[in-house]
Amino acid sequence: QGALVASERTERGYVIEVALPWALLGVEPSDGMTLRVEVGLSDTDSPEPAQEVLMTTSADAWEHTRSRLRLAALAGTDGVAKPAAKELPVFNQAELAQGATQDVVFAVDGVPTGKDAILALKARMQTERVAGHTPALRVYVNNEVIDSDRLVNKPLRAKSRGGDVYSLAAGDRFSTYYSPDFESPDSDNHYGLLDGISACAFELNVSDLVRTGENMLRIENAAAESVDNPLVVADGKLLFRAPQPPAAAKAGPPAGPLEQYAPASKPGAFEAENAGEGVIRITVGDVTYEVASRFSTPEPEWVHGPNDYFAFNRAMEIRDDAVIVRDTFSNQTNENLPIMQRHEVALGTRLKGLWLSGLEQAALSGTTNEPGNPTTFASTETTGIGLIPLSDVMRVHAANYGVDGTVGLADNNFVLQPDATYTAEWAIVPADTPDYWRFLNAARPLVGANFLIDGGFAFFRAGPLTDEWSDEQTTNFIRFKGATYACASIDYPRYNGQYPHGTAFQHINHDNYRNAFARRRELVPGIQNLVYFHCFIDVTEGGPERFADARLLRPDGTQADYGEAVHKIYLPLETNSYGPEVAKNVDVILEDIGAEGVYWDEHEYSRWTYHYGEPWDGYTGDIDPSTMKVTRLKSSVTLLTEPWRLDLAKRILAAGPLIGNGAPYTRAMVDLKFPCFVETGSITHCTKAHLYSPIALGDHLTERSELDAYRTMLAALDYGCVYHWYNDMTVIPTHPHLTRYMFPITPLELHEGYIIGKERIITNKSGLFGWGDASEHEVHVFDDTGREVEAFDAPTVTIDGVTYTELRIAEDWSAAIIRK
Fold it and tell me: How far apart are CA 231 and CA 359, in angstroms?
């Protein structure tokens, strides 16, 4: 890598003078310093030019020369070796397209005694603005892939200012932020990581991989094929520093008094009144909150009640746990009327905590649009107040926000047809403590969230990879995972090389499902076999022509897809060409294959929440916030397709079980009470399940073993959620897990670290646990490896006639307490 300055032929070979890239060797030479080296000829006697000699000299001679080069470079002009460098530059910057790799060769004169070798670099996905992250960076040192356990400058999960907890690694891929530079993510009000963690900086311990002499670093853009942003890496260097102190030992079981945990007897008292001019006054303890409502008109101006554009009537229902508000609007014009709705609580400096869609906002500000959990909860020093939409249109449109000490709930997309009337229903939920969980457990009954989850779930493919498993392997997979439901995906067979989404599923062979299910029923009597179903994506050729009236259109009029052109998205309606055709998949699953039930992926919408074309849902549009006029009509995919989806869900439930991905958004779908989970690529996605069945699906990005899965179970409990298994081929259990005792469960309360159900309590923390009665308990305790601990001492204690399990468990242990 040096520049040839001069060469001279001698009897023994050549003497060459080279100006080396000294920085790569950690040397700061004096001006004009070059290296004079004698190179012997062992493979040729011809007087080749010096550059050629360097290439044709024997391997042994060249290795000896490289060694002399390193020694000379590290020596001073007086011949005395210099101290080892504290850092060694490796590369400056590179940009890699998806799937591309970049190799860098660097030389090391050994790792200094008592030091670790840390590979430090920066990485990001090139975008114009900060926009989250994707697992893209993969690193190899001397052909050894670097796994996440080598990451030393950040944890594997970290909390952001917006409340999300992000997984910063996925096995051997590191989460790489979308950003225009390496600094912007750290100051972003939503994506920025707390605790001083730098999003784009990576430090990896490679002490055992670096060797004296030449080393090879390979960097790969390992992002998914659908990600076309380039990976930018920079400032690569090798650091030599003292080893980090060993991790602190895990905490043991607590001593002394324990907290008591049981269902709350009743919500705290509050007072409420309609103060007029759109204000509802709520008093909780020593704190009074004023919830002020305003509505837009095309004037443009905000109003608090009836006006020339719409008639308005407000009704209040004061319950023990909430105030139900029903605002009825009647359009008095002959045009589509935009009515933005804002319900706000101005707290100023009294605001001490803010949760939007269940995510704590460290900056006490932010905005979310999450129909699965469309809640705003704000706390003062002593109490709190929450806002939640109840009616379908308002819930689907809901925006939850906080800014400058004011928190609120909004519908910024509501459009009322001429002469039409609509009632927007929402609730104010006071809390007598400044606790999100206190608010949540009062809000869940309002939306009918506490219903039976009767069994565990695991994905279990049906095809060549699992057909070869022995009977014992197959039986253990189901029983060790505690699965009542085993779901086969659509990974095999393929349709023209693609997963057979949509009507393509009707054109593949289904023998693999029939054979696998028959075998599993014989091995595990009572197992319920499900097959994957998705109603929005279709991969068949000619779909856009055959289903032209069902294409989901983007704002520019083009058909939406799932990130790749082959994955076209359609609107299933009873009145268009696509709805009746894709519904035939369910007939194939239940009748032709003979599965017991259906797993319905993304049943509320898929990727695109709005459709910009006909037909119109009758309630939705883009509204200019300045002019307060409709700029264009659009349709909520959820609202538009609900009649078709509701009818199909009822048909499935009449035949057998239905399990879904994502909470239902509308009252009619919620009333069906079929279990749904949420995906946990970020564990804080658990908050999206807080207003329905609180189930976390395993993390497909980070789980590579059953121990990884157990850690996700513990993390899900931090959000009051139970767990369903995701990975099948990469997470194969060797023993029964906590999931064996999670179900059946009818949730009563969710809390940080535990969930109280009618039948059982699942917890990852110590305490006195009970149901406020004299029931007997059966206890199963699991250690930090996810294995059940036999004969664990968890005595029953009685306090004032109420029985409790006294549970003292160490860090990363867990327990299931079953009510007898």
Answer: 29
Structure tokens belonging to residue 779? 């206890």
Q: Quick one: CA dihedral 715, 719, 720, 726, positive or negative?
A: negative
Q: What is the pLDDT of residue 111?
A: 86
* Rounded alpha-carbon distances, angstroms, from residue 160 to 198, 420, 439, 745: 11, 43, 23, 32
**731: helix, strand or coil:** coil
Note the pLDDT tens digit of each residue in 273-298: 999 999 999 999 999 999 999 999 99
Across all residues in the chain, what is the average pLDDT? 91
Spatial distance between the Cα atoms of 439 and 210, rounded to a whole number of angstroms: 53
Indicate if the pLDDT at residue 613 is higher than 90: yes
> What digits encode the pLDDT tens for the residues 686-732?
999 999 999 999 998 889 899 999 999 999 999 999 999 999 999 99
CB-based contact 145:171 (threshold 8 Å) = no
For residue 95, how many C-alpha atoms fall within 13 Å in the half-sphere facing its CB?
Answer: 8
Within a 10 A sphere around the Cβ of 416, how many other Cβ atoms? 24
Cα–Cα dist 815/57, whole Å: 68
| Among candidate residues 772, 820, 768, the one with its CA nearest the CA of residue 795 | 768
Which residues contact residue 208 at a Cβ distance below 8 angstroms, ignoring those fewer than 6 apart? none
- Using H for helix, E for strand and C for coil, what is the string for 289-353? EEEEEEEEECCCEEECCCCCCEEEEEEEEECCCCEEEEEEEEECCCCCEECCEEEEEECHHHCCE
Kindly report which listed range (219-228, 639-648, 778-787) carries the lowest average pLDDT score.
Answer: 219-228
- Residue pair 700/726 in contact (Cβ under 8 Å)? The answer is yes
* Eight-class DSSP state of 591: I
Nearest CA to 724 out of 458, 431, 475, 477 is that of 458
Rounded (5°) CA angle 502-503-507: 125
Secondary structure (DSSP) of 382-398: S-EEEEEE-SHHHHHHE
* Cα torsion angle, 197, 680, 536, 372, sign: negative
Listed in sequence order, the residues at least 6 apart from 273 whose beta carbon sits closer than 8 Å to its beta carbon are: 280, 281
- CA gap 776, 772 in Å, rounded: 11
End-to-end CA distance of the chain: give it in Å, rounded: 75
Measured in degrees and rounded to the nearest 5, phi and psi for residue 412 equal: -100, 10
Of 492, 484, 485, nearest to 466 by C-alpha is 492
Return d(Cα 687, Cα 719) in angstroms, integer.
7
Smallest Cα–Cα separation from 595: which of 707, 705, 541, 517?
517
What is the pTM for the complete model shown? 0.86
DSSP string spanning 403-446?
ETTEEEEEES-BEE-TT-EEEEEEEEEEESSS-HHHHHHHHGGG
Average pLDDT over residues 108-112: 88
**Cis amide prior to 493 (ω within 30 degrees):** yes
- List the one residue out of 721, 659, 683, 768 whose CA is nearest residue 440: 721
